[in-house]
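User: Okay, second chain of the day. Same drill as before: sequence in, structure tokens out.
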Amino acid sequence: MIKKSLAALALAWTCAASAQPPHRVTLVYELSYNGMVAAELTEVLEHDGKSFTLSSEGRGKGLGALLYRGAAKRLSRGDVVRAGLRALEFREQRGDKPPASAKFDWAKNTLTQEHEGRSETASMPVAGTPPGAQLPFQDRMSFLYNFAFQAAPDVSTGRLINAMLTDGKGLSQFQYQVAGRERLKTPAGEFVTIHLVKQRDPNDERGTELWFASERNFLPVRILVIEKNGTRIDQVVTHIGD
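Assistant: Same drill. Structure tokens below.
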């Protein structure tokens, strides 16, 4: 009986460990505005099962290379916990503009954001979050990779997912609904995906849709943003490698 229990425990541990993506993954995306290619974005995920680092660099491509000078860079780092990714620090810089940053103090439940020489600290009421539940406060990068580190993410159709996200400049509250499973063709291949759609308030004219590859560790393979003027900003994966 003890041997069977140990074997079952080992199997459960193996399954949980295998739910995580490889220790290093590189995703390359093509960014288009209304169907016109404007930039290429490269994101690198590195982790050891206990901590993670996400780095991103985007540069203009095609007509976008003439319109946007320099690089747009993002960095997120933090811990890997039962609920997924728990960010400690986020930083974003676009070209020569001053960077924006956010620092999470989970011991004090505070978030400090710095932008254009201003610093603001606010409380994060997360003490009552159930163990294993979606962390309500994240940065915009770690949120997109959170499913990849959940052993059994709840992506049942109709489920609502709430999050407060920071980009260093401010906090935004989002609610996504799982729209269901879809097959998505991309330059990197065809994926079975989980499709999430942002729920809009009556005065919210900006839409966001997300696609995660369910058979590739729930990595984000497409992000579509529709601005209030109808502009479609589409980020689609073109390569996944190490």
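The radius of gyration is 19 Å.

User: Thanks, on to the next one.
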